[in-house]
Design a protein that fits this description.
Number of strands: 12
Helix content: 40-55%
Family: Belongs to the class I-like SAM-binding methyltransferase superfamily. RsmB/NOP family.
Structural class: alpha/beta
GO molecular function: methyltransferase activity
Function: Specifically methylates the cytosine at position 967 (m5C967) of 16S rRNA.
Largest sheet: 8 strands, mixed
Number of helices: 18
Protein name: 16S rRNA (cytosine(967)-C(5))-methyltransferase
Strand content: 5-15%
Catalytic activity: cytidine(967) in 16S rRNA + S-adenosyl-L-methionine = 5-methylcytidine(967) in 16S rRNA + S-adenosyl-L-homocysteine + H(+)
Length: 449
Amino acid sequence: MSSKNPRRAAFDILLRIEKEKSFADILIDHELSKDMIKGADRGLLTELVYGVLRRQGTLDHIIGQFSKQRTDKLELYVLLLLRLGLYQSFFLDRVPVSAAVNETVKLAKELAPRASGFINAILRNADRNRDNIRYPDRAENPVGYLAVRYSHPAWLTGQWCDQLGVDGAEELAAAMSEPPPFTIRTNTLRVSREALMARLAEEGINCSETRWSPDGIRLNQSGLISRLPSFRDGLFTVQDESSQLAPLFLAPEKGDRVLDACAAPGGKTTQIAQLMADTGEIYACDVNHKKLRLIKETCDRLGITSVRTFTMDATAPSPAIKEVTFQRILVDAPCSGLGVIRRNPEGKWSKSPEDLLPQARTQITILENLCKYLEKEGTLVYATCSTSVQENEYVIDTFLREHPEFVAEDLRTLFPEFAPLFTERGFFRSWPHRDGMDGFFAARLKKTR
């Protein structure tokens, strides 16, 4: 079987993302599953796709410095080729600039032959004048500077400046432009974290304990994890450390009946089962019935039997839980995903600030619907993977105003061992630059009557 050019494969994937709003991870996995890209080229493909998406704003700024035609007026094929070439020249140390230019021009002659000379000129001119590229002034225009320098939408860097100040926002912006850590969660129903780490070492995987999650392990690599014998034996599942903390704050007890709304792909569901020693009942629900299969597959692989899956739209009453009440409910609400944009960088370019209020309204509707299924003295944890105040504190405050039977509990009092991760109001909020994990939010509510 002949091998495939990783640069051409990266171009094809980036093109589909632009045209179809597809997800990078799914397209990359599909391409690699064909086994037509071999050896180090597999890593190069992944690096090119994610790198171009993470640095797209900076790359377009550089193009604008050397192209007489505005970036948004360039043909899509030309723009993608320029991004690919410039990413290799400016951000990929292991590829010589000459190879980056030559390989991109070679691809241009195949895909956009009339523009190959233009592409060649831009790439070479940018390389010769890289020290003369102008950026917005940090003092006069910090929002614009952070947006261009670290490649994020300006509206988002503006939010971060409001939340963290310019210095903190710059640290966050830099972290959000880098690849995320790869973290797994030990299946404590079958193995201890220490034993799993020893097993991973035998399988050639370097790893270390996570700082906050008692069951988390950070790996030094992410490729082909599903092929590890320890994965097939159900000793762990992939889950970021921040995501592993929300079920700890829910604190389910053995024998509880728990609702995990918006549960797919099942990371928190199976963790709740672990915390309950696979006793009681866990209702795992999702609006997408196809995603329920992912939860079932994970449960089967981990040996978990206490989970029942149901299709349910969390914004409306459901026959699946019509006569059921719960001691604990986890609402891992659908959100903008602004806290995981380094993991899904294509998402930051398709979102706008106008998306946040409608998203918040949906989140409030979900809470309004699900709160009636919670028993008196029951616990509800609301969580998102968003950095936006509008999707987090605003949602909680709006809900509490309408529901005096609920109170927000102070996580600082309940979980003092995690105190540095909590806000002044007792909510959980993690920051990638500060905590080394995804941007996450959680609030714990109690039903008092």
